[in-house]
Specification:
This protein is mainly alpha-helical and 104 residues long. It is built from four helices and two strands, in the order H-H-H-E-E-H. A two-stranded antiparallel sheet has the order 1-2. A hairpin with a 2-residue loop joins strand 1 and strand 2.
Length: 104
């Protein structure tokens, strides 16, 4: 299974897009509301920094956990593939290495 397929299976992309959309919406609302209350502009900076620091945490949690009707559960790992052909990356690394050594 490729890395991209694993990201799709674990819904990491969906959670990341939802988090960024929600963060953008909250920052836009705060940008409008903070000047009305004569609050410090540092509040807006702090909010942006908090969202930026929270993003990697959300991505890791999306990778590890799933939200189901039964609650939050750990995403099950797929059973490993039976030993057979090596992954394509290993094949190409070996092939390029053999090619390089044969011309050297």
């Amino acid at each position: 299974m490729t890395f991209w397929n694993e990201i799709q299976r674990r819904n990491v992309f969906k959670v990341s897009v939802a988090y960024l959309a929600l963060a953008w919406l909250v920052v836009q609302i705060a940008d409008t509301v903070v000047p009305v209350f004569d609050a410090s502009p540092l509040i807006l900076r702090g909010l942006i920094v908090a969202f930026a620091l929270g993003f990697p945490i959300v991505v890791v949690c999306a990778w590890v956990y799933d939200l189901t009707p039964k609650g939050i559960i750990r995403t099950p790992d797929l059973p490993s593939e039976p030993p057979g052909m090596p992954p394509p990356v290993v094949y190409w690394i070996l092939r390029l290495s053999a090619s390089f050594l044969s011309h050297w």
